[in-house]
């Protein structure tokens, strides 16, 4: 399996805890101490229908880098959808996902393992438990997703009005014209956004990486208001890269700047992928190319679609180990 080459740079699902013994009668558990290891997925998000990535303003969120203006989709614009799909995967296999996203809470004598699961380990979570807050830092660190194309080439605007049933903008109740006129900004289909997802410090096992790959899927509905229209993004994994130390290319801003400096046609997805592979493979000692990652992803999806018993058993077995980890961490050894 190609992902096995990543094992030296990842954690071990059977060694997620670090046990500290203060004396013969007292000890406590915490997540295993971080070690040298960095694994970074490089993902191109290709828009296949209009999408909106914005914050409080009506315009698409943007950012300037090296004198260029780019579309900026903050990490949660993609993480939210993939975390939601991860919960659905766990529910499908009866291996977790018992709480709605962003609504995890513990009641009465519930244990951490009753709510925290593999998804919490990968994507992070926090929950109230009595007068305490239990925090779980995400193992998967999502970067911003920034457009390869400049803002002016990637964004367009449509004009909308909310007309009355009679087809006019006249408000009969108030005896005045309606002001329900507005512009809707969107990112054009064909726009490419670059994002990286990193696992640093050997805090996550290979099983967590596989769960991320499956949760990412081949496509999805992302953004806020436009996600309700259905799938709007196709995901392309450029590759997965590993080493003992992090590299600056884990920032998409550095990678996009390198593409411009090299004169790559950022509207040509084939040229972009080739250039990115060259950049990252020279920066990291270990590479699992995108085609191999996609093969793993398609295999995982096919096994899920077929309701593979072995996959279900594996997920449920991992759920028990993850549950024991959270119980020992937040409640102490022995629960």
What descriptors fit this protein?
single chain, 335 residues, 9-stranded antiparallel sheet, 3-stranded mixed sheet, globular
Describe the structure.
The strands form five sheets. Strands 3, 4, 5, 9, 10, 15, 16, 17 and 18 form a nine-stranded antiparallel sheet that branches. Strand 7 and strand 8 (132-136) form a beta hairpin. With 335 residues, the chain is an alpha+beta fold. It is globular. The chain has helices at residues 76-92, 118-123, 151-154, 206-216, 252-261, 269-283, 290-305, 309-331, and strands spanning 17-21, 27-31, 38-47, 62-65, 68-73, 105-106, 125-129, 132-136, 141-142, 145-150, 155-161, 170-171, 176-177, 181-187, 192-200, 219-220, 233-243, 286-289. The protein starts with 16 loop residues before the first strand and ends with a helix.
Number of domains: 1
Gross geometry: globular
- Largest sheet properties: 9 strands, antiparallel
Instruction: Please give the radius of gyration in angstroms.
Output: 23 Å
Mean pLDDT: 90
Low-confidence stretches: none
- Helix proportion range: 25-40%
Summarize the structure.
With 335 residues, this protein is α+β, with helices and mostly antiparallel strands.
